[in-house]
Design a protein that fits this description.
- The chain contains no helices and eight strands.
- The protein is mainly beta.
- Strands 1, 2, 3, 4, 5, 6, 7 and 8 form an eight-stranded antiparallel beta sheet that branches.
- A hairpin with a 6-residue loop joins β6 and β7.
- The protein is globular and about 45 Å long.
Length: 122
């Protein structure tokens, strides 16, 4: 039995600025878990309001493993950077079912906020 979904869409991407305190890094992260007996081939597509999509950012995720992809750091082989304060959607496509979630840490105020963005899976 395959566990998870092959497609996940997270619509509320918006990388917050890092903030003033270097001890707390504002960031967004995409967490993906493969609970299956075979490895997963993952492809990320980023969709924007005012520019062409970025496609073909690939990762491999081994069987019974999890990964955290920090979206404030260079992505994939081409080291793509999304940039701060850019509205986007990320579409996660996988060769097999996986589980995914998306979270943001916003440190621009003293009451830091970490929250997850609900995804749509199919």
């Amino acid at each position: 039995m395959e566990i998870g979904k092959k497609n996940w869409v997270f619509c509320d991407g918006y990388l917050p600025p890092h903030g003033d305190d270097p001890d707390f890094e504002g960031h967004e992260a995409l967490m993906i878990t493969n609970l299956n007996k075979e490895d997963a081939e993952i492809e990320l597509t980023f969709v924007f309001e005012d520019r062409e999509p970025i496609e073909g950012i690939r990762y491999k995720l081994a069987s019974m493993r999890t990964t955290c992809i920090r979206l404030d750091q260079p992505l994939g082989e081409n080291k793509v950077m999304l940039g701060e304060a850019v509205q986007y959607t990320v579409w996660v496509k996988s060769s097999i079912g996986v589980c995914a979630c998306f979270g943001r840490l916003d440190v621009r105020q003293t009451n830091m906020a970490y929250y997850s963005v609900e995804g749509y899976s199919f």
